[in-house]
Every structure is written in structure tokens, then in C-alpha cells.
Design goal:
By secondary structure, the chain is α+β, with helices and mostly antiparallel strands. The protein contains 8 helices and 4 strands. The chain has a 4-stranded mixed beta sheet with strand order 2-1-3-4, with helices on both faces. The termini are far apart. Bound molecules: glutathione (GSH).
Length: 216
């Protein structure tokens, strides 16, 4: 019997992060889609567990678990290396992808969503783009010579790297000169677990408020 339910939106970056870990580890679960009005009962159940309304949310045997990184630690502990130093590096890169890539990406996207920001604030957009311009060279240097973000194997950090870089390149293209970062983005998105979430979300691309590019 499936006791794990993941509430999320198929086009949401943080939902992708949790889904990648679940697919990567072949963990059985039921996906409860909260997209639009497709399944109103899912949204009601989700908000009953987590009134804050941030997704994804895992409900495991009736117990709600919030925050994508914690969901991954809960369902897929093998995606954290056993070695302490490697585990710290994995968690650090996970935080960097979320806080220094995905957060500015979300800030730019929010400025293009009229129901969040009726009057786009160009200064806020410029600050978020400048934050991406600072982190791209750092990531490029950090990823040079590596297959995966934090370790020789695919980890939690790559679950965060795939969605954050997918959307970052749509919002603020990664310059050609950052070959290691661009190569990592292609590699992590070709990983079957990541390619699957990208494919499953194709029918939602019209929702991307800056206009989805005709690639990926
Ligand atoms: N720190 C959270 C971030 C989750 C998050 O920002 N999710 C977005 C969707 S990708 C969301 O819930 N947006 C709706 C909202 O903020 O109300 C995590 O890692 O799970």
C-alpha cells in the first residue's frame, strides 16, 4: 500500500527537486497534483496539512513533511553521502542552488506575474539578475572537472541543481563563456529522473510568464 503522497505542481521547480529524488531512488509514492482546478480535492488536502501553501509537501503515513531538502533527506537518504565532509558539501551546494540561484529566479518570475506584482519593479528584477551574474562564475569554477555538483555520485545537490539551473537559464541565460556550468546543466537535465520531470511538465509551459523558450 502506498503511504507516501507528494503534493505539488508538475511545473514547480521545488516539486521537481523532490520528484527527482523520488524517481532517482524508485521510491513508491502517489503524486497529488495541485495544478489549477484540475483536482480541487488535492489543493484542499494540501492546505489542510500546510496552510502556508508552499509546495512540495510530503505526507508520509499521515505525517506532513515540509521543505524539499528535508523531504529528500526523509525519502532518499542514499542521496546524501555517508562521509561527513561529502555530506556537508552536498548540503552546502543544495543551499546554494536554492538560495543563490532559485531565489533570484523566483524573484524575476514574481515580477512578471500580475496576480503577485501588479506593477513590475525593474529595480528588483535588476537586483535578482545581478545576483545570478555573481553566482554563475562561482558555480562555473566550482563545477569545472566534475560530473556532479558535490560528489562523484548524483546527490541531493543535483536534485536542487537540475530545476534551479533549468529555470535560471530561461530567466537569465548562462553566458557561453561558462562552459562547465552549461555542461553541468545539460548533463544533470539528461539524467533520466530529471528528464522525466521536464517531460511531465511540458504541457504546462504556457504558464511560464516570461515566455518559455523553444528548447530543453
Ligand atoms: N523552501 C521551500 C520553497 C518552496 C517554494 O518556494 N515553492 C514554490 C513553488 S516552486 C511555492 O510554493 N510557491 C507558491 C507560494 O509561494 O505561495 C522548499 O524547498 O520546499
Amino acid at each position: 500500500m502506498v503511504t507516501r503522497e507528494l503534493f505539488g505542481h508538475p511545473f514547480s521547480s521545488y516539486t521537481w527537486k523532490a520528484l527527482i529524488a523520488l524517481y532517482e531512488t524508485n521510491t513508491p509514492f502517489e503524486f497529488r497534483n495541485i495544478a489549477g482546478d484540475e483536482h480541487p480535492e488535492n489543493e484542499a488536502a494540501f492546505l489542510a496539512h500546510w496552510p502556508v501553501g508552499k509546495f512540495p509537501l510530503l505526507v508520509d503515513g499521515g505525517v506532513p513533511i515540509m521543505e524539499s531538502s528535508i523531504i529528500i533527506e526523509h525519502v532518499a537518504p542514499t542521496l546524501i553521502p555517508a562521509d561527513r565532509d561529502a555530506a556537508l558539501e552536498t548540503r552546502m551546494l543544495d543551499r546554494i542552488f536554492d538560495n543563490n540561484v532559485m531565489t533570484p529566479v523566483q524573484a524575476v518570475v514574481a515580477e512578471h506575474l500580475p496576480f503577485i506584482t501588479p506593477t513590475p519593479d525593474q529595480a528588483r528584477i535588476d537586483r535578482a539578475r545581478a545576483a545570478l551574474d555573481k553566482v554563475y562564475p562561482w558555480l562555473d569554477a566550482r563545477l569545472a572537472g566534475r560530473s556532479w555538483a558535490a560528489h562523484e555520485d548524483f546527490t541531493l545537490a543535483d536534485c536542487a541543481g537540475a530545476p534551479s539551473l533549468f529555470y535560471a537559464d530561461w530567466v537569465h541565460p548562462i553566458p557561453e563563456e561558462f562552459g562547465a556550468l552549461r555542461g553541468y546543466r545539460s548533463r544533470v537535465l539528461a539524467r533520466p529522473s530529471a528528464a522525466r520531470v521536464v517531460d511531465e511538465a511540458r504541457r504546462y509551459r504556457h504558464l511560464f510568464p516570461l515566455g518559455a523558450p523553444d528548447r530543453d
